Amino acid sequence: MDNSISHLSISTPVANHTIPSRAYAPVELPPEIWREIAAVASADSVLTLRQISRELRSAVGHLDQADLNRINEHPNSTVVIYQSGDAVRSVTRDPRIQRAMAGAENISPALQEFFAQSNNDDVRWHLASNPSLSSDAAQQILAQDQDEWIRMDLASNPSLSSDMAQQTLAQDQNEWIRMALAGNRSLTSDARQEALAQDQGSEVRAALARNPSVISDARQERLARDQDAEVRRALARNPSLTSDAHQQRLAQDQGAEVRAALAGNRSLTSDARQERLAQDQDAEVRADLASNRSLTSDARQERLAQDQDAEVRAALARNRSLISEARQERLAQDQDAEVRAALARNRSLTSEARQERLARDQDRDVRAALAGNPSLTSEAAQERLARDPNRRVRVDLAHNPSLTSTVQQILAQDRDAGVQKFLRRIAPAER
Q1: What is the DSSP string of 62-86?
Q2: Exposed, middle or buried, 311 (CB in 10 Å: 0-12/13-18/19+)?
Q3: Cβ contacts of residue 362 below 8 Å, gap of 6+?
Q4: I want to staple 398 with a disulfide (CB 3.0 to 4.6 A). Which of 40, 109, 139, 423 is the partner?
């Protein structure tokens, strides 16, 4: 196959770019390299490559290092020629194009390895942060880069799959780099996780404890016993924390912030754990449990609906898992307006009876919360709110995409021009 590019595709000739043939060792550029270059290089670069290729078209064999250095050091050369395995490859010298190539999707492994050894920090940085970085060799080179920011970006790259690179980064002297690695979801190596679970930096261990990829029972056991409360708190929030034994330990933790983190974790499905936390002495713990979408037990919801702390009842009233009409009715009559307003905003509030009760609420914040709820389907409640004496209630209603045509007509004739304006902003398709 002729790996040249026709002169007809070049509008402006380029002079003074021919390199004497004595500067070259035998070389042939493979077709895939031409495709890589043609995708990013300027016309001038392509023409120069064509001239180089024409001079070397009949060459065979491979480059030795001395010849390679002579070619790449030549002042007129606009490309870098390098070897990858048995193939000889070429890439433009232009640093702007190199940066673009290093950060490009589907960059070839050969170019990844080449750019990992670039003298240009920006090129290596673009490569280290590229989600398409797949070459183990390139990752291993970048893991030892002298620039800490490059190692940091590599440590957090979701494509970091090289175990050797992860091992190098797990031993990095910079704690922030180890922290970035600990939080990387590609960190699935048991050995690497174990090393970071014993890291001297508590923030590194906390980052590991938050990582959903840390599903090893042994790792979770170690982190659940960590001396630092922030580490245990991070684990308590981890959605991969499904072990009942570890949940039980954390439910009994001496730190209220740890128990609260567990109470809000959607993986908390154990009736026994939920019941214990529903009786926790700390209101923040009970409030986090009350807001947990995994809280579907009617018994637990009943207990929290009667909680002495209004913040706990308000958290329950906001919970979209609150589908019991009995619980909703109780909260709709709560003495605290904040609780009633939280219920009025809840999209699980589909009972027209509850909606009509809240539309008559004496507190304008409650009525305004209901007016903006997209689940407001009761026409009677809508009509009442459309005639509400409070402007804010009517404005919030005018934004609601669930309005009936009758209510839209009422608002279109509202005495307040602002209400009419907000109504007109609703696209016809949303009405």
Answers
A1: ---HHHHHHHHH-TT--EEEEEETT
A2: middle
A3: none
A4: 423
352 by Cβ neighbours in 10 Å (0-12 / 13-18 / 19+) ranks as: middle
Cα–Cα distance between 367 and 359 in angstroms, integer?
A: 5
Say whether 91 sits in a helix, a strand or coil. strand
Q: Which two tokens stand for residue 332?
A: 């709709």
pTM listed for this prediction? 0.76
* Span 317-338, average pLDDT: 93
Neighbours of 153 (CB within 10 A): 23
Chain-centre distance of CA 335, in angstroms?
41
pLDDT tens, position by position, 60-112: 244 566 666 666 666 556 667 666 665 656 677 778 888 888 898 888 888 89
| Other C-beta atoms lying within 10 Å of the C-beta of residue 17 | 16
CA quadruple 203, 209, 213, 217: dihedral sign: positive
Give the pair of three-digit tokens for residue 135. Answer: 């070459």
d(CA 373, CA 350): 10
Angle at 121 between CA 116 and CA 122, to 5 degrees: 95
Angle subtended by helix axes 379-386 and 405-412, to nearest 10: 0
The secondary structure of 129-165 as a DSSP string is: T-TT---HHHHHHHTT-S-HHHHHHHHH-TT---HHH
Give the list of residues 6+ apart from residue 105 with CB closer than 8 angstroms, or none: 132
Which pair of structure tokens corresponds to residue 165? 């690179």
CA distance 299 to 183: 37
**Cα–chain center distance at 156:** 11
Query: What is the distance between the alpha carbons of residues 97 and 314, in angstroms, rounded to a whole number?
Result: 56
Reported as type and span, the H/E element at residue 94 is: none
- For residues 301-311, average pLDDT: 95
Q: By the 8 A CB rule, do 140 and 164 touch?
A: yes
CA dist., res. 211 & res. 203, Å (int): 12
